[in-house]
Amino acid sequence: MKKTKTKLKVTYSKTPPPGWPTEAEWKLIEADLATKPATRIIPISEMTVSQLIKKELCAEFIRYINKNKMKQKELAAILKITESRMSEILHYYFDHYTIDRLLELLIIIKPEARLKIVA
């Protein structure tokens, strides 16, 4: 008996699932993303200890913005820094910052924050 191959039929919906952006909304999202800075990516294996600490501190600002549903402009105003400096922190361009400075800024929004080193 000869086996026959069955072809998988793929169909595409012309309308997005409920809750998904429409085609026009996707175009607006893509246009908006094209004007934003990309997030800096450094492989963890290539990071120094200082960079790892700064990365974790920057991640706390991102968590704060997401939890409080705020814009980076609003957080920059609270921290009394420029929006471009806030953008650097949120996109992991932390070379202009010392660990001390990032911690000072973080304590403004999270007074209970402490740096804990686990060996």
What features would you describe in this structure?
This protein is an all-alpha fold. The protein has five helices and no strands. The longest helix has 20 residues, at 49-68. The model has no long low-confidence stretch (mean pLDDT 87). The chain has helices at residues 23-34, 49-68, 72-79, 83-90, 99-109. Helix 3 (72-79) packs across helix 4 (83-90).
Give the structure's gist in a few sentences.
The protein has 119 residues and is mainly alpha-helical. The protein is built from five helices and no strands.
Query: What ranges have pLDDT less than 50 throughout 5 or more consecutive residues?
Result: none
Structural class: mainly alpha
Count, helices: 5
- What is the H/E order? HHHHH
Q: What is the general shape?
A: elongated
Estimated helix fraction: 40-55%
Share in β-strands: under 5%
Kindly report the average pLDDT value: 87
In total, the number of strands is 0
Radius of gyration: 22 Å
Largest sheet: none
Our measurement of the CA-to-CA distance between the termini, rounded to an integer number of angstroms, reads: 66 Å
Which secondary structure elements does this structure contain, and how are they paired or packed?
Layout: H1 23-34, H2 49-68, H3 72-79, H4 83-90, H5 99-109
Keywords:
119 residues, mainly alpha
